[in-house]
Backbone:
């Protein structure tokens, strides 16, 4: 069993084994007894005594000077041979040590993968030192914990673990705290002589050698080897282990630097990708908003005329067809509006929003769906999230999209899963509220990660997805001054966990006590006549015609002007109770016309009803809000026009 905490002998730095008394006697005993024995001296090598030769003579004679000379010469030869053998062993060991250091250094220069390097060091070291266990413990950044990075016992790699430095009762923490190396010839026998009181020692092993790992003059951890057999390690091992520990420390610092570099690179790449993404989105937005805007005019005509025709006395099958035309146009109009949301052609209607509450309300809405589709919801909401100014309806639209997407992804991949919704205050982005939607579904294939926010991008089968959900989310969040992006859990370093995470960062906007100055004053200039006189100012003949077709059957009188100049002329000569006026026209635009009329005939200016094809145009909305007039959006329906007419008729009464 691997044992980390081992006792010491009380001697600082090392626990030395008592050395046997060395005898350096090197003379020749030339006393030879009658029993025919003699002791002949020493095995000399370069003047040092290596041992002794003893000669027993069984014949009945005494040893002669010849014998002595003969044995002395053999002794000397043997001495030289023994010395050579010892030198050879020493050289061999030295060469093995050099080999190990060389291999380790090669490994360090060839790879930056720390695990590979540590494996190599472990293998080389245990082989060289004949050790059964190997251990590398690293001090964390805060200096309060040791992470057991490599623990190998009898060839088996054990699970890494951490232990606090404050425990201070392991040999490793002792080495890390003091910077001393420790050598025990037999730890079990030396239990009474530990270098500090309170150190805990397990029942194994016997031989123990540990050294600090230093980087310049900083201790970054400790390395130790162990054996179940006493007397395994020597002072020479201590020296060589110190060298290896030094090299390992360099490798670790290199690997850490490399890791840091990689993280920075990844951050840089992410930032670059986000920049490219936002540029792409801006270009797409401009294109899409133009198209959507242009679509709204013809759609107004399609919807309006379909409705008009339905009012007629027609066959049921024709009416059904008209309904189909109407439904199709409505759907197209919805798509156009979604595209305008993506293109951020609107300003959010800000009011104080409790993000947690908005999330909970959206989740509650989906609770049944989630249950039915085996989706478990886990919420982890910051309790003290302050209210922020935002558009609650739009935000809920984003939340709903993300929740439904996650549920569909998990259901498609494994019939259900867990969706975790979190609110966070990211420490690296102060003033931001972060909302995370993390699922454990299949994740997003990296090759489509850069496209999922594009309008109409979908991987879902026809009829299941329009590919507009995330585009809308993108538009809404960007318009709030926030950011939205997606990552895969695996890339976030969440182990092998699958699934995607959508992250929404919203800027925190403190709630001010502001009242919207919406004082809508009712118009008092109502004419006596029963019949309304209506002016429609629009360059789109279809729009003019639609209003005419609604109003005239009711007896109202409709005149048309295709631009502001023409309208001015008509207004100069006549009184109108309603002036339907498009905002965007060639020549004199709707707002310019209004301003002229407001100056010249203020009572007439109060009868304006503005028409806009750009649903979310902020400037138009702001302008109309300032005038206090009504605004109808293209494509509008007969009901919209009828509503305006009814209102004016009521005023007249
Ligand atoms: P739609 O849902 O109509 O496909 P979206 O714009 O909402 O459109 O999503 C675009 C695509 O993004 C999806 O088709 C899907 O491939 C991918 N996607 C969105 N959310 C997830 C998710 N949680 N896990 C995996 N893929 C997702």
Residues:
């Amino acid at each position: 069993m691997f044992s980390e905490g081992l006792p010491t002998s009380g001697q600082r730095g090392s626990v030395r084994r008592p050395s046997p008394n060395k005898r350096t006697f090197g003379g020749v005993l030339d006393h030879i007894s009658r029993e025919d024995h003699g002791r002949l001296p020493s095995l000399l090598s370069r003047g040092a005594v290596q041992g002794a030769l003893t000669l027993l003579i069984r014949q009945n004679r005494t040893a002669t000077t010849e014998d002595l000379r003969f044995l002395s010469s053999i002794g000397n030869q043997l001495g030289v041979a023994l010395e050579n053998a010892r030198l050879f062993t020493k050289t061999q060991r030295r060469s093995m040590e050099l080999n190990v250091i060389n291999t380790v250094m090669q490994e360090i220069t060839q790879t930056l993968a720390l695990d590979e390097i540590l494996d190599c060091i472990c293998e080389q070291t245990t082989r060289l030192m004949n050790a059964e266990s190997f251990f590398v413990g690293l001090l964390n950044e805060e200096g309060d914990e040791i992470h057991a990075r490599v623990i190998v016992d009898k060839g088996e790699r054990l699970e890494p673990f951490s232990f606090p430095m404050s425990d201070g009762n392991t040999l490793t923490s002792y080495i890390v705290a003091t910077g001393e190396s420790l050598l025990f010839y037999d730890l079990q026998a030396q239990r009474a002589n530990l270098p500090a009181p309170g150190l805990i020692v397990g029942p194994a092993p016997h031989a123990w050698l540990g050294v600090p790992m230093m980087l310049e003059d900083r201790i970054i951890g400790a390395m130790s080897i162990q054996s179940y057999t006493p007397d395994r390690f020597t002072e020479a091992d201590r020296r060589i282990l110190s060298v290896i520990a030094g090299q390992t420390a360099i490798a670790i610092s290199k690997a850490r630097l490399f890791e840091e570099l990689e993280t920075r690179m990844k951050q840089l790449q992410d930032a670059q990708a986000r920049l490219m993404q936002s540029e792409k989105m801006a270009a797409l937005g401009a294109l899409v908003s133009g198209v959507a805007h242009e679509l709204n005019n013809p759609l107004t005509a399609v919807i309006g005329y379909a409705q008009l025709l339905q009012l007629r006395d027609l066959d049921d099958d024709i009416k059904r067809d008209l309904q189909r035309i109407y439904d199709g146009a409505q759907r197209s109009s919805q798509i156009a509006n979604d595209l305008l949301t993506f293109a951020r052609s609107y300003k959010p209607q800000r009011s104080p929003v409790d993000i947690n509450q908005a999330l909970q309300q959206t989740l509650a809405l989906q609770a049944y769906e989630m249950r039915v589709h085996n989706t478990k919801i886990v919420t982890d909401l910051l309790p003290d999230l302050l209210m922020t100014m935002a558009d609650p309806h739009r935000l809920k639209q984003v939340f709903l999209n993300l929740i439904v997407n996650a549920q569909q992804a998990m259901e498609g991949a494994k019939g259900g899963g867990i969706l975790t919704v979190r609110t966070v205050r990211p420490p690296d982005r102060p003033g931001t509220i972060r909302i995370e939607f993390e699922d454990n579904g299949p994740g997003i294939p990296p090759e489509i990660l850069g496209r999922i926010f594009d309008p109409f991008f979908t991987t879902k089968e026809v009829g299941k997805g329009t590919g507009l959900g995330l585009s809308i989310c993108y538009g809404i969040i960007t318009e709030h001054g926030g950011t939205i992006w997606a990552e895969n859990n695996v890339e976030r370093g969440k182990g092998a966990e699958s699934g995607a995470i959508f992250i929404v960062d919203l800027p925190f906007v403190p709630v001010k006590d502001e009242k919207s100055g919406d004082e809508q004053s009712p118009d008092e200039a109502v004419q006596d006549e029963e019949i309304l006189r209506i002016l429609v100012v629009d360059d789109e003949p279809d729009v003019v015609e639609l209003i005419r077709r609604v109003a005239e059957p009711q007896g109202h009188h409709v005149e048309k002007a295709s631009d502001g100049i023409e309208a001015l002329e008509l207004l100069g000569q006549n009184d109108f109770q309603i002036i339907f006026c498009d905002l965007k026209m060639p020549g004199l635009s709707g707002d310019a016309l209004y301003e002229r009329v407001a100056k010249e005939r203020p009572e007439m200016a109060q009868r304006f009803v503005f028409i806009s094809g750009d649903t979310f145009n902020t400037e138009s909305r702001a302008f109309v809000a300032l005038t206090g007039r009504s605004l109808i959006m293209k494509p509008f329906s007969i009901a919209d026009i009828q509503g305006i007419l009814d209102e004016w008729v009521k005023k007249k009464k």
